[in-house]
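Input chain follows. Return structure tokens only.
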Amino acid sequence: MQTETIDIAAARQLPQVHLPRNDGMALDLDWVASVQANTSAIERRAATLPGRRSVKKDWQAAWLCKAISLIDLTTLAGDDTEGRVRRLCSKARKPVSRDILEKLGMTGLTVGAVCVYHDMVAPAVQALQGTHIPVAAVSTGFPAGLSPFPLRIAEIGESVRAGAREIDIVISRRLVLTGNWQGLYDEMREMRAACGDAHVKAILATGELGTLRNVARASLVCMMAGADFIKTSTGKEGVNATLPVTLTMIRAIRDYHDRTGIKVGYKPAGGISKAKDALVYLSMIKDELGDRWLQPDLFRFGASSLLGDIERQLEHHVTGSYSAAWRHALA
């Protein structure tokens, strides 16, 4: 295994910054049609990623703290209650115990956001008052996105009025599967407009799009339509975030930035539950997009159990022993 070190300054918690919104551009169908994806090459490249970088000891601890600052701490269960959401928000404020942070020399560490269903937005906003942590709401008929379009648009407005500063919308997969790029663009533009000042993350549900070429083209169309982030999955599909999908999407982000000068964020979601997996994703982002994308305004993990595993790894780093998973409950 090749071992490389990464600048520890990039892994420390930094003040959250915000870029200008992605206003989008006119739909360029020639550009969309030109987009291809060499699946075998992408899969070969993705297969090498876990062994290309290995960070240990203090370096690893610093990167894991960085990963915490990029988590959208999420609960999207049918039995969510206000009490559970308040406890989750308390964990978002203090994701790691004080004694561990003191030994690491870290202060002010929080997660990137808290992500909930619309009904839980108001309790989450109230529980996070006095912090910079935004509330993200899943919207537009999440997770299938098959409710009537006017209702999806109305749902966005209700979540924004309740205090959500970020909206995770789901696209209509059929528009991608049938190659209706104009329809996808128009849908995304209207959803973007409904979000107002709230940042919008477009969930592609990549496990249901059939091919990596579809993933690449859908990523590009959503960015043209004004998505501030593109996101892999709802977390409810059979296949969620994968390394080949991530490589495809972040290269689309790079191409869009090269053409327009606009930086668009990326959020892998679903199936990322281990600290070692988070390190692979971070190293990929650094390699493909650069250090600037390692900030909360341009990268997030959609996760819940990931935080618990990272906390266990940090405790092992400072004590030499692993604790039981139940000692790091999220809510």
